[in-house]
């Protein structure tokens, strides 16, 4: 059985390319990766690995949001398991915990003057998310959906971050704006709680138990 929790986050943040050292300093030692360097992907790998814990609380001056907890804006979850379960949840307000523990395995990059594309293979020991959702779906013949509290725990996540950034001129300086951040995780175990999937709370627990069993079974 094939199962996927498709999780697409769109984060909008700005990274300053031409840093004025007197004004803002990233809380790490600056490393420059050269575009022509044949080992540039290893360079990016080291930089990203160093940046992650440093960005844990964000860099307010650069408008970089905290990554742990990471505010989930417009995040969407798609729960799908064969024809039994299909549900789509949009996070109205929520947070993800655990990104600062990410281990970078490999980086692939395509760099041009006005666009950066990175595919970053990552392992995350544990990701926990919670918040408020709105959603809909079907479980067997049962219609699911409405809104309420949810949480989702993913253990031993293997994933690829797809990061896309575009050059942007502002006040005579060039910035790289990250306009896309996507990941489709492959997980070893999943556990979720979703309030109000069905109106009756007792039935909701039964449906959830079945969903968790399907997720657990199909994620191994
Ligand atoms: C940071 O965000 C604030 C408020 O959203 C905005 O006024 C400011 O221009 C932003 N700064 C940068 C460098 O993007
Ligand atoms: C998810 O929410 C349910 C219901 O509030 C709670 O019992 C459970 O402990 C939560 N899971 C985690 C991992 O926090």
Essential attributes:
2 helices, alpha+beta, Haemolymph_juvenile_hormone-bd, 6-stranded antiparallel barrel, Bactericidal permeability-increasing protein, domain 1, 51% strand, To_sf, binds 2-acetamido-2-deoxy-beta-D-glucopyranose
In short:
With 220 residues, the chain is an alpha+beta fold. The protein has a six-stranded antiparallel beta barrel with strand order 1-4-5-7-8-9. The protein has helices at residues 40-54, 201-218; strands at 3-9, 13-16, 70-72, 76-81, 85-97, 103-111, 115-139, 142-170, 173-183, 189-194.
> How are the strands of the biggest sheet laid out side by side?
1-4-5-7-8-9
Largest sheet: number of strands, sense, barrel closure: 6 strands, antiparallel, barrel
List the total number of helices: 2
Oligomer: single chain
So, the CATH homologous superfamily of the domain at 39-187? Answer: TULIP domain
The set of bound ligands, ions and cofactors reads: 2-acetamido-2-deoxy-beta-D-glucopyranose
Structural class: alpha+beta
In CATH's first tier, which class of the domain at 39-187 applies? Alpha Beta
Overall pLDDT confidence: 78
Helix content percent band: 10-25%
- The span between the termini is 10 Å
Could you give the order of the helices and strands? EEHEEEEEEEEH
The whole-angstrom Rg is 19 Å
Named CATH architecture of the domain at 39-187: Super Roll
Count of extended strands:
10
Net shape? elongated
CATH-defined fold name of the domain at 39-187:
Bactericidal permeability-increasing protein, domain 1
Poorly predicted parts: 1-25
Query: Strand content of the residues, in percent?
Result: over 45%
